[in-house]
């Protein structure tokens, strides 16, 4: 049986997207458009597993949509929509809640991180969040899932759930086991202030990240102030591994210039970090500021963005309902 390739991915609408999201996810989404059918979802229901101010949530859904478009996702090529507008996600999530095991969820490291020290106070939604993610993927019978390395465990859970469903309901190969597509070296773009932490919108200092909406001046300042090292840039990858901030700057430079890390390292070896930073700021400004400007422009026409989501919803809903009809039958629901 030939299974048609289909990619699905989701991005949470939780404000400012940054360089980590851009290199670790969005750019990958864009290139996949030429390889297979793609569905890209703004996962608003995942966002509300922790409290979101309603007006901010609405804005963030639109801003994430604008970021999708500004980085090059094309509504003519890919289905772009928001999760809550296709009811099948929650319906399938419920069915999968009954397939997934408590023991499986208890192993999820992201829940442990996000729930913090007082797990009793975390929302039930946060706990079963990975089941909803499995529903997102399986609702479309997606075969490929481009995600960051931090989502690998959730994806393994999706595969376990798919497998158990296929077994419990005697339908081998009904749900394809979704494969993660994790960009190897860029899956971890680190904070500009601390090379041991991932670049994140939740780190307090804005100097820790490059936001897609940053101006050229902001990018320049942030790169100038980024933590580096007092010694010249080493040419030995073993030494570089012990200098995570330096490695991070070189990784970003290598990604943006599309040259290998080895090539960049040999070009930069022996030079001062100020030299790398000057060059890095320049290429970043060239690549990121047009994206930021496009996001701002798109955000001025909210009804256009809503229209794009509505069109995407219509297309997604057709596939979702087709698959759900069979899923309901398999489970025995009338
Ligand atoms: N959990 C993912 C994240 O935080 C977002 C997400 C939700 C997702 N549903 C998905 C990613 C389905 C891939 C496929 O990044």
Topology:
Layout lengths: L5 E6 L7 H14 L4 E6 L1 H4 L6 H18 L7 E4 L5 H10 L4 H5 L2 H7 L8 H16 L4 E3 L5 H17 L10 E3 L34 H10 L11 H5 L2 H14 L3 H8 L4 H27 L2 H30 L3
Parallel strand pairs: 1-2, 2-3, 4-5
Helix pairs in contact: 3-13, 4-7, 7-8, 9-13, 11-12, 11-13
This protein binds tryptophan.
Written account of the structure:
The protein is mostly helical. The chain has two domains: 6-187 and 302-331, HUPs (Rossmann fold), CATH 3.40.50; 206-296, Tyrosyl-Transfer RNA Synthetase (Orthogonal Bundle). It has 14 helices and five strands. It has a three-stranded parallel sheet with strand order 1-2-3, with helices on both faces. Strands 4-5 form a two-stranded parallel sheet. The longest helix is centred in the C-terminal third of the chain and has 30 residues, at 302-331. Tryptophan (TRP) binds next to strand 1 and helix 7. Tryptophan binds at residues 8-10, 12, 43, 46, 133, 136-137, 145, 147, 151, 154.
């Amino acid at each position: 049986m030939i299974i048609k390739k289909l990619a699905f991915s989701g991005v949470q609408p939780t404000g400012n997207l940054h360089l980590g999201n851009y290199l670790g996810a969005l750019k990958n989404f864009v290139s996949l458009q030429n390889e297979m059918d793609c569905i890209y979802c703004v996962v608003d229901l995942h966002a509300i597993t922790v409290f979101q101010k309603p007006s901010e949530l609405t804005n963030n859904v639109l801003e994430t949509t604008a970021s999708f478009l500004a980085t090059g996702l094309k509504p003519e090529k890919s289905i772009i929509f928001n999760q809550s507008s296709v009811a099948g996600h929650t319906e399938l999530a419920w069915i999968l809640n009954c397939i997934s095991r408590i023991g499986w969820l208890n192993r999820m490291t992201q829940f442990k991180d996000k729930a913090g020290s007082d797990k009793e106070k975390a929302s039930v939604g946060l706990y079963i969040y990975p089941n909803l993610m499995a529903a997102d993927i399986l609702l479309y019978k997606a075969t490929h899932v481009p995600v960051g390395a931090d989502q690998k465990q959730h994806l393994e859970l999706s595969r376990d759930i798919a497998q158990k469903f296929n077994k419990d309901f005697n339908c081998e190969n009904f749900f394809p086991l979704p494969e993660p597509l994790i960009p190897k070296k860029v899956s971890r773009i680190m904070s500009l202030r601390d090379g041991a932490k991932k670049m994140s919108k939740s780190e307090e200092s804005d100097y820790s990240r490059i936001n897609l909406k940053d101006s050229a001046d902001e990018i320049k300042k942030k790169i100038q102030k980024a933590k580096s090292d007092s010694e010249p840039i080493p040419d030995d990858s073993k030494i570089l591994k012990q200098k995570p901030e330096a490695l991070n700057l070189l990784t970003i430079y290598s990604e943006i210039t599309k040259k290998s890390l080895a090539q960049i390292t040999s070009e930069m070896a022996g030079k001062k970090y100020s030299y790398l930073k000057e060059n890095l700021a320049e290429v970043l400004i060239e690549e990121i500021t047009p994206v930021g400007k496009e996001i701002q422009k798109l955000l001025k026409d909210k009804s256009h963005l809503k229209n794009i989501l509505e069109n995407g919803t219509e297309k997604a809903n057709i596939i979702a309902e087709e698959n759900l009809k069979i899923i309901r039958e398999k489970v025995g629901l009338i």
